[in-house]
Amino acid sequence: MKGDEEVQVFKKISLLFFLTLFLGTLAPAAEVPLASRALTQVLAEEISGETAFRYADWISHFDRVQGSEGYHEAALMIKKELENMGYKNVILEGFPSDGSRRYYTFRSVIGWRAKKGELWLLSPRRERLCSYEEIPLTLVKHSNRANVEAELVDVGTGVGENSYQNKEVKGKIVLATGSSSEVMREAVFKRGAEGIVSWYSPETRPGYPNMIRYTAFWPRWEERERLGFGFNVSKNQGWLLKKMLEEGKKVVLKAEVEAEFYETKLEVLDASFIGTEEPEKEVMVTANPCNPTPSANDNAAEAEGS
């Protein structure tokens, strides 16, 4: 009898618990203001979403990889705009960056510029897969120059010994889902592959079949001539290439890349604006405008939104 009573008590507690959850979902959530009404009103009168969007769109036309010419050009335009707004002491500072020099825990980047990058499928049919001119994001940043026609090999993630068991990749191009920099070291540096084709596997971020990942090799200066090339293809393209290989078809690709490396600078844009009230106090706002094109993503949005 005691056991039956405990069961009834448990049922009542469970019912009360679920009723509480259900009623909780019907009750309106309490609104907690993030700022006072006065501050909200001032912001509403001063901030323009259209202007912020225009700036984000404007800056996204530059391929703003760290230490690149695109970043420099974007910084110059931001500098000019700040000066037009009345900001004083607008200075663009540069710090040596060669891929080996370190600033505290940060290793500087290597200078890299690309003029051309195309990836073609030659067999079992002819199709252009990537064009740097059309979508700069498709060429892996820091890709080396190349004029290669080679067979494609699927190496899974391309990271670790298991990815290469019973697979010969020397002189070939590898298809991989792992980090481009890691795959470059595993496939090209260690095993003699010519280059890599990088893609998001279908399980990653489902619902975006045409998504192209942003990747870079981030090499040290002394590694630059050992690098191969790399292309980022969409999930759909990667899946089709993988399926061809699984069906036993011989997949041949051709990669053409015109690129070069150079010593560059990490640039920082500084500006100040003296307030009319309490000018002795300071508010520091920081943002990073770096990002590949076509993209504003978080970085450019932060820079223009700040």
Give a short synopsis of this structure.
With 306 residues, the chain is α/β, with parallel strands linked by helices. The chain has helices at 2-26, 37-46, 49-59, 69-85, 180-189, 235-246, 297-305; strands at residues 88-97, 102-103, 106-107, 111-123, 127-131, 146-154, 173-176, 195-198, 229-232, 252-262, 264-272.
Structure description:
The chain is an alpha/beta fold and 306 residues long. It has a domain at 111-262: Glucose Oxidase, domain 1, CATH 3.50.30.30. The chain has helices at 2-26, 37-46, 49-59, 69-85, 180-189, 235-246, 297-305, and strands spanning 88-97, 102-103, 106-107, 111-123, 127-131, 146-154, 173-176, 195-198, 229-232, 252-262, 264-272. Strand 2 (102-103) and strand 3 (106-107) form a beta hairpin. Helix 3 (49-59) crosses helix 7 (297-305). The radius of gyration is 27 Å and the shape is elongated. The termini are far apart. Mean pLDDT is 86; it is low at 9-23 and 301-306.
